């Protein structure tokens, strides 16, 4: 296993020294000059261990994305600035950090504010209201989208009706602010592509859509799931865990999935979301970026 890892790191251009040489490398080492049909963004979750260890702050994230990885679009996770949704001094500084580094703020992934498919009306009402501040924060930061969760308890039909109701109301609020509301396949029924696509069809609003995650389909066929969700996609999450010696994701056919993305007419950001533990977070981000660039060149 360690020999395979060393060989892989050598292919990435990091060699035996690994990431100790990363900051000195030119950005072109990681970038593809070829025009691709999509743009690459970096999901903050890729660095969740580093953030939780206190080695990186949310405020520093845009600069790290640009200077360390050559990525100029970011996807925030609200867990890492949970108490700052209404702190406009903080948001103003964060926005300036992004602008200073030529970084586009793409979206905010929102967790811990309640579930859109909760069948209890009062609980669901509170969840909808809890998300309003994140819609406003996203607008202030220049993002186009917030990601929410369609979890809950009940029968599939009960949860579908609940999700259509809450997503519809939140999307109306989002529309007034020019913000999309999207649902990721994020466990439970939301990881059933047919169920989630039926919910989004039921909402039937232009700013309510999906964030297909390549890795979160679990018992549902991932390739069918991406087909199900791409007609509603306002973003795409390029989940990776591990890589083979050729730099391909070991369990996910990226060429097949990205062809589905292209064939759906999608031309937006594809967010790197490395979640593995064989490579470090830094190595995993670089490996995922190289994979996306390779596949992007093949399909563009």
Tell me about this structure.
By secondary structure, the protein is of the alpha/beta class. Helix content is 43%, strand content 13%. The chain has one domain: Alpha-Beta Barrel (TIM Barrel), CATH 3.20.20.150. It has helices spanning 2-12, 48-52, 61-69, 88-100, 121-141, 156-176, 193-203, 222-229, 254-263, 281-299, and strands spanning 39-43, 73-77, 104-109, 145-148, 180-184, 208-211, 236-240, 269-274. Helix 6 (156-176) links the parallel strand 4 (145-148) and strand 5. Helix 7 packs parallel to helix 8 (222-229). The longest helix is centred in the middle third of the chain and has 21 residues, at 121-141. It is globular. The model is unreliable at 16-32 (pLDDT under 50).
Order of helices and strands: HEHHEHEHEHEHEHEHEH
Quaternary structure classification: single chain
Q: How many strands, which pairing sense, and closed or not: the largest β-sheet? A: 8 strands, parallel
What topology, given as strand order, has the largest sheet?
6-5-4-3-2-1-8-7
Low-confidence stretches: 16-32
Indicate the radius of gyration in whole angstroms.
Answer: 19 Å
Provide the CATH top-level class: Alpha Beta
Number of helical segments with 4 or more residues: 10
What do the pLDDT scores average to? 92
Q: Structural class of the secondary elements?
A: alpha/beta
Which strand-content bin applies to the residues? 5-15%
Architecture per CATH nomenclature, i.e. the level-2 architecture: Alpha-Beta Barrel
Amino- and carboxy-terminal Cα gap: 34 Å
CATH topology term: TIM Barrel
Give the number of domains. 1
């Amino acid at each position: 296993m360690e020999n395979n890892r060393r060989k892989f790191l050598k292919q990435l251009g990091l060699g035996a020294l690994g990431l100790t040489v990363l900051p000195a490398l030119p950005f072109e080492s990681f970038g593809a000059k070829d025009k691709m049909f999509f743009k690459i963004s970096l999901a903050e979750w890729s660095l969740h261990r580093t953030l939780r260890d206190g080695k990186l702050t949310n405020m520093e994230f845009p600069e790290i994305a640009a200077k360390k990885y050559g990525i100029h679009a970011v996807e925030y996770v609200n867990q890492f600035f949970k108490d700052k949704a209404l702190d406009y001094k903080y948001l103003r500084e964060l926005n300036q950090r992004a602008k200073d580094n030529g970084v586009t703020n793409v979206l905010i992934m929102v967790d811990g504010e309640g579930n859109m498919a909760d069948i209890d009306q009062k609980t669901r009402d509170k969840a909808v209201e809890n998300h309003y501040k994140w819609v406003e924060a996203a607008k202030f930061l220049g993002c186009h989208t917030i990601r929410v969760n369609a979890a809950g308890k009940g029968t599939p039909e009960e949860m579908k009706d609940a999700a259509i109701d809450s997503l519809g109301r939140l999307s109306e609020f989002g529309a007034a602010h020019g913000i999309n509301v999207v649902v990721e396949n994020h466990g439970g029924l939301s990881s059933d592509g047919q169920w989630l696509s039926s919910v989004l069809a039921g909402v039937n609003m232009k700013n309510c859509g999906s964030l297909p995650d390549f890795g979160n389909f679990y018992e549902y066929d991932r390739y069918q799931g991406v087909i199900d969700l791409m007609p509603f996609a306002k973003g795409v999450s390029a989940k990776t865990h591990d890589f083979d010696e050729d730099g391909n994701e070991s369990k996910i056919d990226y060429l097949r999935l990205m062809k589905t993305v292209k064939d759906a007419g999608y031309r937006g950001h594809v967010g790197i979301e490395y979640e593995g533990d064989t490579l470090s977070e830094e190595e995993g981000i670089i490996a995922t970026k190289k994979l996306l660039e390779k596949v992007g060149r093949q399909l563009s």
